[in-house]
């Protein structure tokens, strides 16, 4: 992408949202109400809504709705439920899987970036409740660490945020010794960008130069691996290992958004041009600079398409894909010209 990044438009996200929350799935542009709502998506709603500069009433309303949903999902010991049906009934018990980590990420982001003082205060209270516990899952802890780093950036010395980051740093596995496969897992899985973003954010927050450098180096390796013929070709749903053929499908927008978030984080602490270039490549993936040469979102409404298959685009516009597109454009606009 060489020109300005398209504007962030919330039309479709608002269409997907009722009085309670944002529906998880869509049939083309229409919400599939029968599938209900989830914390994973409402955490993403809170992140996107609170980091949008100068957001107006409808976007602030999304943030308030997300904050209320996450509060209702939480238990007193820090865990949270994930799924609610369309009638407002929770369908599971509190836990600390990925949805918990995304919730902590969202609460830290809202506490740091919301334009509304009440949202900042309530998000901080909820963050402190959630940060009482820990997750055994590496990605959940990485998501939570990103939120803790956001909060610590605006509230230096915040004890719950610092304790969470310290525990996360201790949990990071040692770097593998294989120079050809530097990833800390045998295969790339999902939300890979979040693992390196968490390393970068934690390295900065805890003043750990070695961890920061490891995160930056690993992000550079990941971007190189995920780039084919000058465009992004992200890890498919089945993962990616050494020697796997590329391109591979199905590709999910959330993987591109994860890379964009990591590049945006890196760009704030390292002046190399690779990070703004990575952001532009992520935005360009949605615009059609991908393995099929087909757009992955509708810029007129902000709706994101649900997946890139080997022969077509999945034109359903669910919440996760829509939020991935909006998040990517937000991040890319921070380091790119704004259209006049």
UniProtKB/TrEMBL annotation:
GO terms for biological process: carbohydrate metabolic process. This is Glycosyltransferase, group I. It comes from Mycolicibacterium chubuense.
């Amino acid at each position: 992408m060489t020109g300005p990044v398209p504007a962030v438009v919330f039309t479709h996200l608002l269409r997907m949202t009722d009085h309670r929350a944002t529906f998880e799935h869509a049939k083309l542009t229409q919400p599939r109400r029968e599938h209900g709502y989830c914390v994973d998506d409402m955490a993403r709603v809170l992140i996107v809504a609170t980091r949008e500069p100068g957001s107006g009433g409808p976007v602030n309303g999304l943030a308030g709705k997300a904050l209320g949903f996450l509060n209702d999902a939480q238990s007193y010991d820090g865990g949270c439920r994930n799924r609610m049906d369309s009638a407002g009934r929770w369908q599971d018990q509190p836990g600390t899987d990925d949805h918990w980590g995304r919730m902590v990420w969202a609460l830290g982001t809202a506490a740091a970036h919301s334009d509304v003082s009440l949202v900042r205060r309530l998000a901080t209270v909820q963050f402190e409740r959630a940060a009482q516990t820990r997750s055994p899952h590496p990605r959940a802890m990485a998501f939570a660490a990103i939120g803790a780093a956001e909060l610590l950036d605006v509230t230096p010395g915040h004890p719950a945020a610092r304790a969470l980051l310290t525990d996360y740093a201790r949990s990071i596995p040692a770097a593998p010794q294989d120079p050809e496969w530097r990833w800390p897992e045998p295969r790339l899985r999902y939300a890979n960008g979040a693992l390196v973003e968490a390393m970068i954010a934690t390295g900065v927050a805890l003043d750990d130069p070695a961890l920061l450098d490891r995160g930056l180096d690993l992000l550079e390796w990941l971007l190189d691996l995920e780039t084919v013929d000058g465009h992004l070709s992200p890890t498919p749903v089945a993962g990616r290992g050494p020697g796997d053929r590329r391109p591979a499908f199905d590709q999910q927008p959330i993987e591109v958004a994860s890379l964009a978030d990591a590049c945006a984080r890196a760009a704030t602490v390292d002046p190399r041009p690779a990070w703004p270039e990575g952001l532009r490549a992520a935005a360009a993936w949605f615009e059609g600079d991908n393995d099929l040469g087909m757009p992955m979102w509708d810029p007129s409404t902000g709706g994101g398409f649900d997946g890139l298959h080997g022969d077509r685009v999945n034109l359903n516009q669910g919440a996760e894909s829509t939020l991935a597109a909006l998040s990517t454009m937000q991040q890319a606009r921070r380091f790119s010209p704004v259209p006049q």
